[in-house]
Amino acid sequence: MDPEVRPLVPSGRAGYPTANAPTLPVDECAPPLPADHRLSFSLYSTLDELMTELNAWAKTQGLGFVKRRSSNHVNGKPTRVDLICDRGNLRPSTANVRKVTTSKGADCPWKAVARALRQNNRLWTLEVTEPNHNHPASDSLAAHTVHRKLTPELQNLIRAMSRATSLKPREIYSVLRLAYPHAVFTLRDIENYRNRLFGTPQPTTKRQKQTGRSAANSKGAGTSTSVGSDLDLSNTQQGSLATTGTSIVGAEMSGLQDSDNLAVLVGSSDLTQI
Questions:
Q1: Which of 75, 126, 238, 255 is the most exposed place for a label (fewest CB within 10 A)?
Q2: Among candidate residues 266, 233, 272, the one with its CA nearest the CA of residue 151
Q3: Which InterPro entries does its entry note (predicted)?
């Protein structure tokens, strides 16, 4: 007998499979949450606590779960939150929850409900109402926004290298990816963080480039500002950060094996103070 298959609904109008929709055998789909997992019978003080544990399990399975909508408000706070797989259909939703977009949506049917009922003293419980997925587990956790995070340490390094060197986002990404191979982040995360720090870069016209070069030439070398002057860094640290752009992006990156080496190169012993 052929293995059970579930239709993969192509992108388009959600919930309405088209003719000749591709199928996937059950044993190739991402696994369901085990029925005996503690999430199924535990009480949680906050929804965040529940979501943290749920996505901690999902992280080991190549999955991610997100909030779809909240309802049943008591004293202005929701007591019911509908959850879906992040490869499911987020629409329709009027909830004020984090937007998750993906080009890999499969209209996954997985659904669950988190509730804070009065009989449970408003502690949160989880009920999985549709346990099955219709897609394989992800090969990379970076495919899931919920698992991507720039830690404070990474943010400090991005901020320092952005201000004190001429490194571009892609080069910063290469440096950090080599130094932090197990961290989950993307080039877009770095670009978004830089945009929050410095504003979204605007397109530069040919005239603006020419004007900028003329202004720079008129100032002369004697009036240039030292690298990293807007940071509370020592001269040694500023020099280290300035040379990072040319010394560790390229062949020299082979010597960058871990975050400790990166800290030495950029003088980051005080980066947490930046």
A1: 75
A2: 272
A3: Zinc_finger_SWIM (IPR052579)
Q: What is the pLDDT of residues 70-127, one digit of tens each?
A: 999 999 999 999 999 988 875 554 444 444 444 455 688 999 999 999 999 999 999 9
Q: Is 236 helix (H, G, I), strand (E, B) or coil?
A: helix
Identity of residue 159: R
Beta bridge partners of 25: 5
Q: How many CA atoms lie within 13 A of 3 on its CB side?
A: 10
Q: Is 232 left (phi over 0), alpha (psi -120 to 50) or beta?
A: beta
Q: Is pLDDT above 80 for 229?
A: no
Separation CA 184–CA 273 (nearest Å): 24
Number of domains composing the chain = 2
pLDDT of residue 232: 42
Instruction: Give dist(CA 132, CA 18) in Å, integer.
Output: 20
- Together in a domain, 166 and 94: no
**Strand pairing partners for 113?**
82, 127
Boundary residue ending a domain (138, 164, 194) = 138
Do 34 and 98 have their domain in common?
A: yes
